[in-house]
Amino acid sequence: MSRDRLSEDEITAGLAALPDWRREGDSIVRTAEASGFPAAIRVVDAVAEEAERLDHHPDIDIRWRTLRFVLSTHSAGGLTALDLTLAAAVDRALDTHG
Ligand code: HBI
Description:
Layout: H1 8-16, E1 22-24, E2 27-33, H2 37-54, E3 59-63, E4 66-71, H3 81-97
Antiparallel strand pairs: 1-2, 2-4, 3-4
Helix pairs in contact: 2-3
The structure holds 7,8-dihydrobiopterin.
């Protein structure tokens, strides 16, 4: 998958399909509450597996049940299709394990 930076229109279109995510500068961010600390870790574990498969990794802040995911493509200095794909994977992990 391309690591070319997305255009503003592409970012806007991508975020329309990711209603739980917010743009923060060159990143997209989602904060979510898991049912407890073990569930939060299960979410992070599922995301880690997908991140390895994609070779694309999130910044994750874990505070008890609260998870904050920050996605950007560091090598591109902004957002790429990989970030949108990983965001959808985070959403699935939260739906399944959260
Ligand atoms: N993850 N978010 C993010 N951004 C990157 O630029 C990135 C990554 N994971 C791995 C990676 N780059 C590269 O080190 C490998 O693709 C080689």
